[in-house]
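Supplementary Methods S3. Input chains for the assembly prediction are listed below.
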Amino acid sequence: MNWLINNYESILPLLLNHLKLSIIPIVVGFVLAIPLGWLAWRFRLTRGILLTIAGLLYTIPSLALITSLPPLLGLPYISESPVIIALTIYAVAIMARSAADAFGSVDEGVRQSATAVGYSTWQRFWQVELPLAGPVLLAGLRVVAVSTIALVTVGAIVGVKSLGYYFTDGYQRHIVFEVLTGLVLTMVVALLIDGLLVLLGRVALPWTRHDKRLSSRLPVTAPMAGASAA
Amino acid sequence: MTLLPDTIAWLVEHFASGELWVRIGEHLFYTVISVLIAAVIAIPIGYYIGHTGRGRDVAVAVSGAARALPSFGLILLLISLVGVVQRPIAAFAAFVILAIPAILAGAYAGIQAIDRTTIDAARAVGMTEWQILWKVEAPLGLHLLLGGLRSGTLQVVATVTLAAFINLGALGYDILQGIPLRRDTQVLGAALVVIALALLLDAAFGVTTHIVDRAIPNGSLPGAPPLKLRIPPVRWGAVVDPPTSG
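Predicted structure tokens for the full assembly:
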């Protein structure tokens, strides 16, 4: 407890940096995964290729990915960009599969009705498919958000400042409470962001509000999710 | 740019000296033992939940919360708690805890996903609950159980890499030792070995799943004729299908 009293001022900057390191990959990953997921859903050839690559990328252990990027891209080891790039790769990999599932979840009859009443492919995508894919997209985004926030802490091994700093610092100084604080704070941030996404989903997808099955269900076994998130 | 040739040279040299084989051996040792212990704990619980339907919410909550748990933090917390001397035990405990949710979810979901009529049929022909579990539910749930074991294994492979931070050796050692010395070839070489190991284990699970799927085709037992009964789905009001869990 003494540690917390003496160090509470360090929480806010680390927390903000943690958020920055996680929000960029979550947002960029989501935006990149939508067209990739659509391609994977639409054509059999691209489905095989994209989902295989996504599966392989997510299999790569996080420390190996984070540390192999600096030599390959000519970046310094102790910098935020390899962590952000690595987490974006994971986010795209999980989210692309979710997006493919999401577009697959849109009822074919609805899709054909939209075409029948004169929607172009482009209009149909934005006004019919994307909104109806929303609940499954949201479920995927929640998985991405929570696992990204947890994974940011791995950056602490290579000296990138996040709440994971409390793990390495607390371990080296033998302060159990400091490690515990980092762990609890990270999980609280993950759960808060998850809750925020659920709220966002209620606002953006009002028709799912009364259907708990669609709006707040986390997939029990997403084959990709959680595979190598360490 | 001599990075790639130099990295290959580093790999060749350290494979030849046997050093990398030792690290791979350590890595696999931690992984296999942890996954086995986790399986012994998680599969019975998952089967119990899947068979009885009790505690479903717990299984869902555990697999959800596990995603939010930072594995690196868990290792360091357990070691800080038990002391540095007991390091390997604490690390094993962390690996096991991290592997359990995926295996539990796989065991539970494998049974949950079986067509209820199949299980009712087994009960109707007079199978005991144990027979239903071992002769119907376990074989039919094997596909998803293997998926859970695969996820759990890859989670542990990734986490064992982090264990180099607490001087536990394995393949993360060369990565973490190379960074302060700015030995690009060593960091990249060791990272590539970790990646290859993960991909190989992933492929091994893929092959095993394929073999199992051929032995237990389409949700019917070996030798049994496949169920032909199919009722066309009627969905008047269904605008959105429920989300797939995969």
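Chain A touches chain B through 70 residues (CB under 8 Å). The first helix of chain A runs from residue 2 to 7.
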